[in-house]
Amino acid sequence: MRTTSSMLLMAALILGSKTQGQDQPPSRGTSRAEIVHVSLSMLDQWTECVRQLTGKPLLLANFQPAGNLSCPSSKDEIRKQLEGKAVLVPGDKWDLLIGKNLSPGGTPPEFWKSVTVKLKVKPWEAVKGSRPASLSELEELSTAALRAVRPSLGVEPPIAKRSDVGQPHDAIAIINLELLFDIHRLSATGPESIIGILREELGGIGDGRIIYGEFRDGKPIFLWDSPRLTTRLLNLNYRDIYHDGVEEILLMGFLPSRGTIGDLVIFTANGQELSRQPGGPEGFTAPIITGGEVKFVEDSHGGPDFLGIPDESDEAKVNTYALVGTYKNQSQESSGQSAPVGDNAAAQVNEQGMQLMKSKSYEAAAAKFTEAFHLNPNDAAFANNVGFAWYRAGKLQDAVLWFQQAISLDPKRPVAYLNLGDAYAKLNRNAEARRAYNKYLELAPNSKSAVDVKRKLEALPSTP
Prior knowledge:
It is a single chain. This protein is of the alpha+beta class and 464 residues long. The protein contains twelve helices and 20 strands. The protein has helices at 4-14, 42-54, 75-82, 135-148, 330-334, 341-358, 362-375, 380-393, 396-409, 414-426, 430-443, 450-459, and strands spanning 36-37, 58-61, 86-89, 95-99, 112-123, 130-131, 152-155, 171-185, 192-200, 207-216, 219-225, 229-230, 235-239, 248-255, 260-267, 273-277, 295-297, 306-310, 318-324, 326-329. α6 (341-358) runs antiparallel to α7. The protein is globular.
């Protein structure tokens, strides 16, 4: 027979699991105090913890940790976590984190004593139907975007002249970034959308982030930003993929000699990533389409566009991908294949985490739930489970970040707000705990836990 505590444990882990996880922010017209970071990765969460300690965002050069990095509580803990793995180069507005696994011939990370970031803010190249931002708008947009976008960006490791390496002088690494903006109405009756990208200047060969906002009452409000993408020299474009009068946001790289698309990334205005080719270090949200060339194929019956992609093993064969949530290979769908192995594997790993929770092996359970989340990063229940395991392990800041991830995936999941409120309460962040508890009661006013949540609200101190 289950004890009351074990029943509450299971409820906190799985309550609300019938609600389908959504990888998007609330619909237009609803206000949200914080930007939605679509598919927040463990590295994103760690860099946010670092920014809280240093006051500066991070540029990541050749740094992709193999294991978990827990949220550091001090600058000394940051140094201990990076020992033997990377060098943190201080800067004025950004810090630069250089991994030690550089390619042969690269400049040793210890060579650099400081970093200077030069940022150019400018309009994106003219797109049909868009209007260029004015100089005053660019200044306002850049200030708001840099305040909202998540605090990490991948860059190429800086390289010094071979003759300079090893010389006893202060070496300053120069990183050139660009922040591009386009203003475009995605539908005839919709607001003016703001589409920006933060990346190395000219695209580099590193990563970038899309950031999306809208003008509301004349003010720019940023709503979401993307995981790191391999942006290369991708151009901005728009296309009404669903044929519903609302355009989607495309990053495209053409192969002019073939008249096809070599690179393609697609986002909806709500932040859902429909497709990505090539992938990227944080390619969690959409299947990576392989094959190297893509063509849009319009449905003669007025449905969503298809993608035609040559088969890697047989150039004469073209696979057709239809847009059903994300692009799915129709040859696989029609053959009656079962659900993707990743989904089944995620459920199995999640169950292993549940068993570890019962035995109070909370950190091991957190690792299992994290593995399940990476196998199926659109399932808010897995993110909530990671957070709850860290909460039980006493890693409250880690728990907060994972509960926030669950909420970004599914803003209507009551249990995530309840768990988030409990974590904030233990951190004595009373105002935030109060907001989380009130949101829970708004979503689940008649739940069995509602009475208990009201008691928790009454017990919170009035101080922030």
